[in-house]
Every structure is written in structure tokens, then in C-alpha cells.
Amino acid sequence: MLPHVIVNSTKKLDAVVVAKTLACIILLIVCVGFFAKVSASLSNDYYLLIMPTAGKTIPWLIRLAISSLLFAVSASVVAVVVRPIWIAVLAYLAGAFLYVLITGSSSATWIVAAIIFVCMSLYGLYISKQLRNQVNFSLHPLSDMKVLLFSLLAALISVSFALGYSTDSARHGGYILPPEIKTLGVNYLYDQQKPLIEAQPGTKSQKEKALKAAHDKMQSTVDDIEKGLKPIQVGIPIMLGVSLFFIIQLIFIILSFVAMAFLSLLFFILKITHFTHLANEMREVTYITLEPVDEKK
Fold first, then answer.
1. Positive/negative CA dihedral, 149, 104, 162, 68
2. Is the pTM of this model over 0.85?
3. Which domain holds residue 205?
4. Domain assignment of residue 100, yes or no
5. Is there a single domain that holds both residue 68 and residue 140?
6. Torsion 83-80-262-92 (CA) sign
7. Residue 282 — left, alpha, or beta (φ > 0 → left; ψ -120 to 50 → alpha)?
8. What are the distances in angstroms from CA 86 to CA 89, 121, 124, 160?
9. Which parts of 172-285 fold into alpha helices (H)?
10. Is the separation of the CB atoms in 161 and 49 below 8 Å?
11. In the predicted model, is pLDDT for residue 5 greater than 50?
């Protein structure tokens, strides 16, 4: 006897099942839209991470964690309960199109949307196959794939950051280092020299000239650093995006366990509220044996 969530594609779907299926798909689309909106804000204001502030960066990080969690949960719910599986694939396709609509149509976002669709479809197909092969229904296939799912989300956030850096650089004359970062670097170096200059003997006018010369020297040093990075200017957004990817991955390791705990609770609630049901079915099993088939009882 093989218990599983009732999603038999060979039977005619009644109105209740259709309504439940639509509810799951709508949940996915809403959650994808929420995630897309949060990640798109990083493209428009990547300074949230370059120049973090408690008033802006922390609320954004909280929204990012919530939207990523909802994205993963909704995608998993669709993968588990929506059948036939091609309906789930169409739901993922709709989510990918919505991502483009929210983040803006460009060659880069269309590529990202295609990656979302392919990865989510493979995720859904894998989960569907693993659930069919189970003897007793469990969420273990979701646990096995949680790293891949959150890696996809981390990649999407990193791409948004890299695109934001590149777009802002092009908009302001193609800078290599953001003006705010250069100013921060100059001020930091200047602040290191300022107490030493002020402690030296001399008149106020002499010290002011020395301070101005020190500031100009620090500015020149930062400009030289920027010029030295000129040959790899194109690769800087990519390198920053890759670095951000690995940082987010570490954070998402914790979030993935939260997602599994949330999914376990969610499916328990869906079961006791009769949104989903467990059913039994008999299946023929083919196996190998040394005994002749006609001699088996």
C-alpha cells in the first residue's frame, strides 16, 4: 500500500481540486512577485550592500529573507501537490514571466527568467519522481533539494546586485569604484594622517596646508588604485556578484532549515484541514529473482 498526496492525473479533476490547484499556483505567483520586487530593488539601489545603513539595509535584509522563504515554500508546495506535473511547469513559467515584468525587460533579465524556469521545472520534475517512488509519503525529497533551491535564489540576488552596479556605473560615466566608496577611502586614509600632522610643530596656516596636501595625496592614491583596476573593469561587477553569492549562501543554509520546518508544519496543517489527503494504491512491482516465475506462488 503506497500512501501519497492525491493528485491522480488519470481522473477527471473536480471543481474542488481545480480550485485548490489554482490556489497553489496563485500562491506561487504572488511569492515570486514579492521576491522579484525585493531583489529588483537591489538593482536600483545596490548601495544597500555597498554602503549599508541600519535604517535601510536591515529592513531590506528582513524582506529578502521573508521573500526567499516564501518563494522556496510556494515552489515546493506546487512541486508536491500540483498534478499533472505539466501544470506545475506552466506555473513556474508564469512565475518566470512575472519576474521579467517586475524587474524590467532586458536581455539579462530574460536570461535570468529562463534560468528560473529551467531550474524550477527540473526541481518540480525531480520532486514529482521521488514522491512517486516513495513507499510512504514524506518530505525527504524536498530536504535533499533545498540546497539547490536556495542556491538559485542566492544566484538571482547576486545577479541583481551585479546588474545594479553595472547600470549605475554606465549611468555615471563608467566609474570603476563608486564615488561614495572613493570618498570613504580618501576620508579613511586622511583620518589616519590627520592626528600625526596636527601633532607636528608649526603655525595654524602651515598645518592647514599640510592637511590639504595630505588630503590631495590620499585622493591621488585612491585615483591610482582605480586606474590600476581599469583592465578588469568589466569583471568587477561579476567578481562582486560572485562574492555576494557565497556570502548569501552561508546565510541561506540557516534559512533552508527554517524552510523545511515551515513546510513540515504547513503540510501538517493542510492535512488536518483536509486541503490535502493521503490515499493508498496498489502497484505492481517488478524485481529480479533466481526462482522461475511460474514456480512462484
1. negative
2. no
3. 179-228
4. yes
5. yes
6. negative
7. beta
8. 5, 9, 9, 29
9. 179-198, 204-228, 236-272
10. yes
11. no
